[in-house]
Task: structure prediction
Amino acid sequence: MAIDRITGGRPLFGTVEVQGAKNSVLPILAATVLARGECVLRRCPDLSDVRASAAILRQLGAKVHREGDTLTVDASCLTGSEVSDQLMREMRSSVIFLGGILARQGEAVMSFPGGCELGPRPIDLHLKALRALGAYIQEEGGALVCSAPALTGCEITLALPSVGATENIMLAATAAKGTTLIVGAAREPEIIDLQNFLNAMGAQVRGAGSSVIAIEGGRPLHGVEYTVMPDRIVAATWMCAAAAAGGDVELCGVDYRQLSTVSAALTEAGCTVTSTAERVRIQSAGHLGGARMVRTAPYPGFPTDAQAPVMAALAKGCGVTVFVENMFEARYRHVDELVRMGADIRVEGRVAVVTGVPRLSGAKLMCTDLRGGAALLVAALSADGESILEGLHHLDRGYERPEETLRALGAQVERIEES
Ligand code: EPZ
Result:
């Protein structure tokens, strides 16, 4: 089991090329099952969730290989339509494969994705929408047994802008006869990336980024070369690291508009954030004020995935910030670990009140989930003394070699593979 050893208190300086977006490449990998040909994905991050998706694609009969940051998927001959229980448990967001497998194979079997560290992760909106398109889905013994002899386009209104449900509908609708309209669609930038990928394959998808998306089904889809968008949550995480530790860091290849709510919170706390078309620069003296109020919401609201790293950055300082986590029930699991470092955080249901303290102390820390783990990394960089971070498998789901990135910025962090 690996651990990270971090010595805090060193400001960060330099430039970061941000990795490809996990939450874009996962639905894009699911979409490759639709292509009767080879898809070449550039800027594909080497993450455990990507490796889990590659295992699912191979289980379905696709050929997958990686060369550097390029992943090639050939789904010309798909032989399967089942995702094993073991792979579903490895990555609960594998449910995003359901729409694509149904579209390509006309049937699909996968176990019901359980909850995760963030609490229950229902998929009722996914199932309701796929049934509306004509899929027969039986939920038996913890498995989803699905068949879709014919999918027919229709208008689907989502009760809430679920990212995964929007993506599953987009994939299934490419094989539905006629037009599918998603009303109340998620507006995340990753949805736009998926639309661009599908259209490059020969699909006709319009409206991503707005709350109404139209998909013309029935078009043959071919292989394509595509570059995945940069990861806005990883970018936000490195901004929080610079805000907390102090310094001057520039992020390259990012769209500053996707970071506007995080930039606003860190600016309110005393950082200086300047942006050009594809670069965001953050300067910080390392001692922050508060950001008053941070409410998570569907895009373009404050991203729930950035809540934990931003909280870690604001834990050391002299201000007060009230967080309201509106997206997930259990997304404050990092708080107890931050309190062990000396943070002053009070949680009441969905509300967490963070009162900045003059300093945090290094400690032995356990990652609780992906973004909670990122928060502990941020806090350790700004703490006095040494921290040991365990449970790195959570981090590995979404961050590609984070220790290398931070060391290049001047941080003292090393990963120790324990025998
Ligand atoms: C995606 O998850 C992201 N994951 C999450 O990122 C992100 O936090 C989330 O969107 C919100 O932005 C990927 O893209 C792989 P949702 P997803 O469906 O699609 C409820 C990370 O850290 N809901 O938009 O699962 C659900 O319970 C991860 O990178 C239903 O009630 O999120 C939640 O409260 C964590 N029924 C809310 O909607 C459904 O059928 C938003 O979920 C589906 C969702």
Summary: Residues 22-23, 26, 93, 121-126, 160, 162-165, 186, 304-305, 327-328, 370-371, 398 surround EPZ (CB under 6 Å). The two ends are 7 Å apart (CA to CA). Residues 232-245 form the longest helix (14 residues).
